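Hi there. Long-time user, first ticket. I'm pasting a complex I've been working with (about 1154 residues overall). I'd like to know whether the download I got is complete or cut off, because the file seemed smaller than I expected. Thanks.
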Amino acid sequence: MADTYFVEPDLDFIDEVSALGGSDLKKCFQCATCSVACPISPDTKPFPRKEMIAASWGLKDRLIGNGDIWLCHNCGDCSTLCPRGAKPGDVLAAIRSYAIKEYAVPKKLGEMVNDPKKLPILLAIPAVIFIVLGVITGLLDFTPGGSEIIHDHFFSTWLVDLCMIPASMWAVVVFALSLKRFIADIHANALLEGKTKKEKIEPIGFVQALIKIIPGILKHDKFNECGENQDRTTPHMMVLFGFIGLFIVTAIFFVTLYIFQIHGPYSQLNPVKWLGNIAGVSLVIGSGLMIKTRLTKKDEVSTYQDWFLLGLAMGLGVTGLLSEMTRLADLAWFSYTIYFIHLIFVFSMFVYLPYSKLAHIVYRTVAMTYKEYSERT
Amino acid sequence: MDKKYGVYICKGCGIGDALDMEELCGVPEEEGVSVKTHDFLCSKDGVEFLKKDIAEGTNTLVIAACSRRVNFDIFRFDGCIVDRVNLREQVVWSHPRSEFPALTEEQKGDEEHFDRLQMLAEDYIKMGMARVEKVDLPEPFKLENLSRKILVIGGGITGISAALDAAKTGYEVTIVEKQASLGGYAGKLRKQLPLTDPYEDLIPPAIGTKIKELEGFSSITVKTNTEVARIAGQPGEFTVTFKKPGDKIAFDVPYPLPDDMKLDENGKDLDVEKLAEVYAEYNKGREDILTIDPDGELFGAVVLAAGWRPDTLAKADLAHLGFGKLSDVITNAQFEEIAAKGKITKPSDGSEAKSVVFIQNPGKDDDADFDYAGSVTSLVALKQAKYVREDYSDGKAFIFYQHMRTPGLTEYFYKNIQQDRGIFLTKGEVIKIEQRGNALLVEAANTLLGEKLQVKADLVVLAAGMVPATFDDPVVNLAYRQGPAFRDIGLFDGYSDSNFICFPYETQRTGIYAAGCVRRSMTMEESIEDASGAALKAIQCIESVNRGVSVHPRSGDMTFPDFFFQRCTQCKRCTEECPFGALDDDEKGTPKPNPTRCRRCGTCMGACPERIIGFADYNIDSIGSMVKAIGVPSEDDYDEPPMRVLGLVCENDAYPALDIAGLNRLSYSADVRFIPVRCLGSVNVIWIKDALAQGMDGVFLLGCKHGDDYQCHFVKGSELAEVRMQKIGDALSSLALEEERVAQFEVAIDDYDKLPKMINDFVEIIEDLGPNPFKGF
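Hi, the file is complete. Here it is re-exported in full:
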């Protein structure tokens, strides 16, 4: 631990965290009930007490690069038991939102993603790209015709991949840049706060740690330890597995298209199609349940970041299923329109992923891997 | 008064079942005194039964029934002397027949068996009869020139509030203020703590409205630029001399001689004449306390609201914080001055101070109170932190505390301040402050952040406590022989003490009631409330003096000490020992009583070696006769006679505790006889000597706790008794009696459950010592 810490409170940081859903952070009077209540906090240097005082002191440097904020699963047990109503769970969520914005480059885009006023522009961007690229390349045909509805005839699969491959690569690159800093920061913070004895991060060990924690993430082990918000486990699982399922389906179809040259649409009897349908339904139901919970649970703060993510998940699932259903129902133009919207959602998911709350899938996984690797107890 | 006696024994509440009534009635009958029993004496029928006798001429009644602490209103008969013999709580309820069996027919009359309980009851009736023979009905002491005016010393928020409260109830008030204008410290602030719901935000100083309100009262006289030179006389007729601050006048109060000046060059006590001479020299130019200022103004009672000053912090102790060396390290009082003038700036160069560190408990590494602190200093830090935020939107205020005390509704204020994004609080010890360029670097250890911290500050504010005005100066300047200030004030850090919990506002000087920060550090809200309490106390005092009765704790007592001066030896013990400074001796040493200063504890009576002081209903003879009325069986009566132990019991805590023990049916030895006393301070050693001389085997005193956290209702009584008991120990050993035969125990009113063991253990010790060798002589 450092000998003496030079404190420079950042008042703007306090304001921003307040705006991101942590508006009660100053109410904390350091009783540590939260750290005692937390079912998943480590025994040594437990969170969220130390994060609460750092937040109320505006100590940005102590929080943004602090892996512990990602170990929190926002169970809400701490917020329920907090005698002052400081809502540590929501404060940590707000700090995470801030951290996502802080690590993702370019920052300008991060600000846009987190600003509700910029939402129309964000959605317009893919639409414009699709139309411009489509018109230039002629891969977008507004008069597809034919007796059978084939989305490829309207919005060529080539165009889809022309847009989506760079979009996903974008996400990978942005994450790569962010994680480089992020991992360095959380390690430095762990050394400073005496949370680890490891001096350096060995890549092999780190990957081994990642492999070790994945089953736990899939099984939602940490979520299941929560008291207050345990009912969130199932919807979250449905959404996560929905995404995973759809990712697998997309990958398979990608391979079949480029290697076996087989074009869609596929038969409904195809098992891959089953998986896709189940995953889509799971995504819609899961995100629907989460939306319902957020609407009814007034004691927990719901921010724009939460709604952005839930809207995206719900939008993806609904437009995906709808474009399939309208296709089967032979509603040509309706189906094409929905498909176009669906593609906007897909594009948004990739491009905005590193800036939105969805980025937690990466940061939390990395933070949990680091905890495993650093042997933090 | 021609006494016509009557003894009345109640048979209710189990008394008739446990005791042999016929035998009991035999006690007064033997003395030729009329005795009657009744099944239910406190009933309507019972009272009528007593009134019938009173109508027929009985005027001295011994009512043997329940404790005198209950039904006192029912058994009060104007113009009659009434003694209450406690057969219920301290006889039958605390001595069940199952443990103290009655005698069978065969056992009666033999020399082996005796009925302890019956003996106890009979003794108490004898004692009651002995007492009423020796007491008289009191006549009230009335002053010739009673003033109903109230003097308020101090024109700050407390004094003004007290004056307003008293004026609203119709009393004339004079406020004296040393400064040129009213307002005190309350008038020197930028803002103050909230006074009303929701108790969240700072408010403009409330003193202005108070002063305006004051101007509307013609019954309030304000004397600014004035102080009290002396207060002479006694409650109801205090003669007060005023003067301009700093003036030297003839009626400046004289001071008692320091102890070393009372000795000659060989270290021996000076004789009376020499002493008077030294005293006159020492107080040259000042009139003696007994000389009354002919131009003095009369007042009935005084409210002392002299307030406080900021504590001066010791530079040597705070060198590591740069205090006294760095000009931007200041105290909270200095900070308030800066804030009241305008924006917060640095004293060093007048530039903006946007980052301010507030240090509570400066120089201390634990959370014990620092000197003259209290919750106020915590609240002031919060208030001043808010000033920084008011002045600069990017301002930062850090508070390092060892304790943050925000009692009661001030918690809302704390919560609100804590919400400010630019105010940062942590427990922690500031260990170092250094100049770094244009700023100060503050280093703190053991913080809530879990490590040592450094903070850059433009200004550092150290918390200083609130020193009561009475620390520096007597203020009241009493023309009392014991001195112009409250006695032993040094023991209480200069605060005007009386028992804080039991009697707030009271001081060790009757008629003078303290309020506000002379009592402890207080917020203005607390001071305003305190002022009401003290004003009401002052009114109570005037209205008691008016009727010739005592104030608290013996409220309504009409007796006062009576001196048989012909036998006074001018030993001055009474003057010196009176806890309230009620006596002023003249140059020969003869005490001059001031009855309205007296609280009727009887400490003078206990102190007097000549036994010339007494009260109409409580005196050396009355208690002495009760002691002598106790039957002391010897070997002539029984083969193994029971022990006899006397318990002199303080009526304030110990006697009620005994009653509660009885109420809870806790039993203890039946060989002890209790006599209630006004205070252990009133116990004269002659009673103890009498008891032992007539063969009683032991004596114990049961009274209040003494020491720093005393519970004595008369401040000094139990402490003085302890000193006297030590002296009597020496006397006992010279008589070949064991010192252990006399003891003193401390009890609080809620210690009733411990009493049986305390009593029984003492009786056991006495039994082990064996009977008093003087028994039977």
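A couple of notes from our side: Chain A touches chain B at residues 1-9, 11, 14-15, 18, 26-27, 29-30, 50, 53-54, 56-59, 84 (CB under 8 Å). The two ends of chain A are 17 Å apart (CA to CA).
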